[in-house]
Amino acid sequence: MQITRIELQRLTLPLQPPFYAAWDPHPRTRFEATIVRVHTDEGLTGIGSGDTMDGFDAFEHLFIGSDPLRLAAHGRTLETISFHAGRYWPLEAALWDLAGKATGVPVATLLGGALDRIPAYASLGEPRSPQQRADDARDLVAAGFRAVKVRIARGRIAEGIAVLAAIRDAVGDALEIMVDLNQWWRMAGDIDPGLTPPGARGVIEQLREHDVLWVEEPLPGKDLTGMRMLREQTGVRIAGGEMARTFDELQRALRGDALDVVQPDVVLSLGIGGARTLAELALRSNRWFTPHTWTNGIGLLANLHVCCGVGGGPFLEFPYDPPGWTPDRRDFMLAEPIEADAEGFVQVPDAPGLGITLDDDRIRHYEVS
Question: How distant, in Å, are the alpha carbons of 107, 178, 271 from that of 113?
């Protein structure tokens, strides 16, 4: 079997009302997605999505004509490209999807098959008032969720801590609570000062009073010493790594005792092969592996397969913050959005590959010429 063509299809979904992401100073009025299709001479097609794939045309020749099942070789090729250009991990997800279709099994089975479902945590995205978040927490419990992640904007720390207090008052211990401070990386153009280690420690000590399960990315990713200090001095789990550029970056974080929870998103960081290896190292080091999943439904599926394949957890991120962020918006290119069940679990699809079923009519409607 040989790769004959790599097709990129760009989509844009208008967002009305806008989505006010806590990590972005600008309201989001559109949601963009790039679908990657890897075509073969045997008629099989692999599908992936995640990062933008901007500039990939210059590197397409490195894959055309090759065997799509040489997954390790393709992953290493993508690592070399990422040094010079973009993160093209959606292509690798498409290759794994193709491998699952070729062998007739879900990707999670190829990766070990440790789990076939995992509890989801509702990953909130917008800054909202404490009272509104208390109401949201009650709705999450009623929907079956067992955990929630609250993002606290850099300039709204006091309000964020008040949100945690309101959630605890509203639902008690019915929800585990995680907090994301979004300091590991920055949006383009964001050069405002961030938290220092002493400042982050002060924030985490306040969060600890509300029994948080972990605090995510309290410092820039390069400050591994600071994150190790936060772990040691506060006793609170520290999470991070969703956008790490290289495998070595997160391996250093593990070796340096900087992280309790490692979170590379396989369609943005490391790819499925690299994340699987890192997950095994993390789990054997008595750490948690639970990837970031905030792209779209295809990216969510890719991370679900890796997390379940290796036996990660204890939860999987499930981007969910209605009405601004819903499964219908997140998964607009899919025939059916991915949902958590009444017990709060997300199930690995039974279909071979990643289990992606596209909505061709909607894709044509939202395709960018």
Answer: 8, 27, 18
pLDDT at 84: 84
Rounded to two decimals, the pTM is 0.96
Report the alpha-carbon distance of residue 230 to residue 161 in Å, rounded.
Answer: 18
Summarised one tens digit per residue, pLDDT across range 206-224 is 999 999 999 999 999 999 9
DSSP string, 272-326: HHHHHHHHHHHHHTT-EE-----S-HHHHHHHHHHHHHHT-BS-EEEE-BTTTB-
Backbone angles phi, psi at 217, to 5 degrees: 50, 60
Query: Over the stretch 308-341, which tens digit does the pLDDT of each residue have?
Result: 999 999 999 999 999 999 999 999 999 999 999 9
Four-point Cα dihedral 117, 309, 276, 306, nearest 10: -40
Helix (H, G, I), strand (E, B) or coil at 356: coil
Residue-wise pLDDT for 256-305, tens only, equals 999 999 999 999 999 999 999 999 999 999 999 999 999 999 999 999 99
Q: Which residues contact 288 (CB under 8 A, 6 or more apart)?
A: 237, 239, 260, 261, 262, 282, 312, 313, 314
Pair 148, 140: CB distance under 8 Å: yes
Q: Which two tokens stand for residue 41?
A: 């001479």
Q: What is the 3-state secondary structure (H, E, C) of 105-136?
A: CEHHHHCCCCCCEEEEEEECCCCCCHHHHHHH
Element of type H or E holding 198: helix 197-208
Q: What type of residue sits at position 115?
A: L
